[in-house]
Write a structure and sequence with these properties.
The protein is of the alpha/beta class and 260 residues long. The protein has twelve helices and ten strands. It has an eight-stranded mixed beta barrel with strand order 1-2-4-5-6-7-8-9. It is globular, with a radius of gyration of 18 Å. The protein binds guanosine-5'-monophosphate (G) and manganese (II) ion (MN).
Length: 260
């Protein structure tokens, strides 16, 4: 059996064996430092290898369609955790879930969301946010616009993830139903040092604001990046500089406003 086949077999058992975990990383308001939401990030705790990063196993899950039940599990967990957040005194914070290509194109996605959102124990739809990569949206813009509109009609929010790398044109952004833009980490990485990155980030911020869309920077690791982003009107911040992804209870213990 190849290593990939071995992984596939192990992954198909991983859910039942409780080997998947979700880590949470806070996002903050760049103006007042208040925490505004959490991104949920999937982790696989392999019995022998320890924590396996998502890049390694997500592609295998996507090929094997295991990604659909896994995505459903992530969304259900997001709803549960939103409930716990509200109980802990953070009722307005959202939980963001990353969409895989298969899940985004799954015909049952909207129906599934509809099913888990209403009811007493479910969070308000606006506290659930789906992160959809710019490159995925742009693969088939017409189809994406239809799916995004149906999701937003439920009240669920949409963030366009990894923005700035997927060739969305200025004009297309206007047509994409979204609530937020996430600046790609590769642009944020050297925004304070590289004039090209700085110019691209500035124009994304100005375009997004022109369309009334807030911009959040991901992957902020250094104080100089943070200072650049704040002085260039970026609305939200996320990254190791503020908080690393952590299991829910650990994250909750450390949750608080940034000293801005
Ligand atoms: O954009 P995307 O959803 O693919 O990014 C999520 C990934 O980025 C996660 O695996 C998370 O652990 C990682 N991540 C979060 N914050 C930082 C950071 O500040 N720096 C780096 N290098 N990676 C980060
Ligand atoms: Mn993301």
């Amino acid at each position: 059996m190849s290593e990939r086949e071995d992984m596939m077999v192990r992954l198909s058992r991983a859910m039942g064996a409780g080997e998947f975990e979700i880590f949470f990383q806070p996002q903050y308001d760049a103006r007042n430092g208040a925490p505004t939401g959490l991104e949920s990030l999937l982790r696989w705790r392999h019995p022998e290898r320890g924590l396996v990063p998502p890049v390694v196993f997500l592609a295998i899950c996507e090929d094997s369609r295991l990604i659909v039940p896994l995505g459903h599990w992530m969304l259900s967990q997001a709803c549960l955790c939103q409930r716990r957040l509200a109980e802990a005194g953070w009722p307005d914070m959202h939980i963001a879930v990353n969409m895989s290509e298969t899940q985004f194109h799954d015909e049952d996605l909207v129906e599934f969301l509809q099913r888990i959102l209403p009811g007493d124990a479910a969070p308000a739809a606006s506290t659930i946010e789906l992160e959809v990569q710019e490159s995925l949206v742009m693969k088939d813009p017409e189809r994406s616009i239809r799916i995004l509109s149906a999701i937003r009609a439920l009240g669920v929010r949409i963030a366009i993830d990894n923005f700035g790398t997927g060739y969305a044109s200025m004009a297309s952004l206007q047509r994409i139903p979204a609530d937020k833009i996430k600046l790609d980490r590769s642009l944020v990485q050297n925004v304070d040092q590289n004039p090209d990155s700085a110019a691209i980030c500035r124009s994304i911020v100005s375009l997004a604001h022109g369309l009334n869309l807030p911009v959040i920077a991901e992957g902020v690791e250094r104080i100089e990046q943070y200072e650049w982003l704040r002085s260039n009107d970026v609305d939200g911040l996320q990254g190791y500089l503020f908080a690393r992804p952590a299991p829910f209870d650990d994250m909750l213990r450390g949750l608080g406003a940034l000293p801005i």
